[in-house]
Amino acid sequence: MNKLIVSSSPHLHNKESVSKTMWVVAASLVPAGVAGVFIFGLSSLWVIIVAVISALATEALIQVLTKRKVSLIDGSAFITGILLAYNLPPDVPLWLPVVGSCFAIAIGKQVFGGLGHNIFNPALVGRVFLMASWPKYMTTFIQPLNAGVGFVQSMNYDAVTCATPLALLKEGKFAEQISYINLFLGNRPGCIGEVCIVALLVGAIFLFIKGYISWHIPITYILTTGVFTWIFGGKGLFAGDWIFHILSGGLVLGAFFMATDYVTSPLTRKGQIIFGIGCGLLTAVIRLWGGYPEGASYAILMMNAATPIIDRYTLNRIYGTK
Amino acid sequence: MKKLINEFLKGIVRENPTFVLALGLCPTLAVSVTLTNGVGMGIAATFVLLGSNVIIALIKGSIPERIMIPCYIVVIATFVTITEMVMKAYSPALDRALGIYVPLIVVNCIVLGRAEAYASKNSVSNSFFDGLGMGVGFTLALILISAIREFLGAGTLFGHALIKGFEPALVLGMPPGALLVIGLLLGFFNMLKNRKA
């Protein structure tokens, strides 16, 4: 009878959904995690598992208590757990990821009303809380086990603690012995998920090809940090070791997987470029002149706070209006 | 008598200065690091509130409208000075811990707020119980906040370690911790209120 379908716009749909996006992003994070476990041994696998389970449990518990629909299936708590674990040193006591995940989900996300309402990236909220609360554990890093014989070695002795390349730089002891190729492959002390740049890039390229993230935030972020550290990072102007700065710390992990969080980054392309540049500047400033060796997490959180303002001033002109 | 008790009780729950009126948050944020500080600050503020409420209720008829606030400030400052001197004499350690926040009770908005909103319009006995209730409400709020912050942020209560092997979350002893705890408690009390309504 009625061959015309009457419905309100939008009329074009694609098959994407929040949960599919989230699970694809989670899949793209797998290589970095595998690399992290391979580099630092099985203790980091436990950190990841504990963080994910406690993130899921906290989410479910709060949604049951507040009588909302339990939405574990959308994968967002899963990603928060993974990202938080990737931001922890490999050898932390296991209660640390539990507390961090609970805080990230409860305070970072559910207090604001759940997925889509949080103003800050929950995983970073968790990390910064842990960093401010238990700095002793959060800044104790272990030496990477030698690739290949890693699992055998990890049974012989627990761990050798040492400083990250950026922490050495902060103390004025530049780690000459770490070559760019080792930084690129992740053969250096650091957090579980941030060390292996090549694995992070594999995941990031996958997301690019699938169209889940655009270049606007991550590329401007990394470029800004690179340019800024190149200009001001060395003895004179334009003498900084920008490759070192891009490859060390949590910059690549943050730029591709945390700054691009849909909920907490600007909506328009223009806004995303401003967001990326802001993150880059803040990261470089904290690294070069701030009190902490690494500033990616603080930079992203600060720009998260600026996102509503950026969105307000970068509205796209609607066709046909002035 | 029933009305007086009501005046007293309203400051504790229904119109709690910290959690409902959201007054006097500056000293609350700053001194709630330890339970000792919280109790000390609460008692000092209660004394000032009580004194200023009574005096202002007494002289409310004789001050001209145009210089009301300066007069209130003089009365409040007198009581703050008394408090400060007593504290310096009998509890110098607490005075050092509270620091600038004792003289700053002068500009605590609970004190001026009650003087302006209540004592200047009500009888002496009503004002007395209003001041007492508000003071006790403020003290209880401070005790709650500082107990949470001291226990979770330093693992102690009144300076005594409680649980062996407990690793305190240092952030709760720092300014962000104060904002976090007060924010969550405000949310919690609002939730209770909404549930009742």
Question: Overview of this structure, please?
Answer:
The complex is a heterodimer of chains A (322) and B (197). Chain A is an all-alpha fold and 322 residues long. Chain A contains 15 helices and two strands. Chain A has a two-stranded antiparallel sheet with strand order 1-2. In chain A, α10 packs parallel to α13. Chain B has one domain. Chain B has eight helices and two strands. In chain B, α1 runs parallel beside α7, α3 runs antiparallel to α4 and α3 runs parallel beside α6. The interface between A and B is small, with 8 and 11 residues.
Sheet with most strands of chain A: 2 strands, antiparallel
Helix content of chain B: 55-70%
The gross shape of chain B turns out to be: globular
Number of helices of chain B: 8
- N- to C-terminal distance of chain A: 43 Å
Helix proportion range of chain A: 55-70%
Oligomer: heterodimer
Q: Spans of chain A with pLDDT under 50 lasting ≥5 residues?
A: 147-156
Task: Please summarize what this structure is.
The complex is a heterodimer of chains A (322) and B (197). Chain A has 322 residues and is mainly alpha-helical.
SSE map:
The complex is a heterodimer of chains A (322) and B (197).
Chain A: H1 18-40, H2 42-65, H3 76-86, H4 95-106, H5 122-133, H6 135-138, E1 141-142, H7 150-156, E2 161-162, H8 165-170, H9 180-185, H10 197-210, H11 216-232, H12 242-247, H13 251-258, H14 269-289, H15 296-313
Antiparallel strand pairs in A: 1-2
Chain B: H1 2-10, H2 25-31, H3 35-59, H4 68-90, H5 92-98, H6 109-119, H7 124-154, E1 156-157, E2 160-161, H8 175-196
Antiparallel strand pairs in B: 1-2
Helix pairs in contact in B: 1-7, 3-4, 3-6, 3-7, 4-5, 4-6, 6-7, 7-8
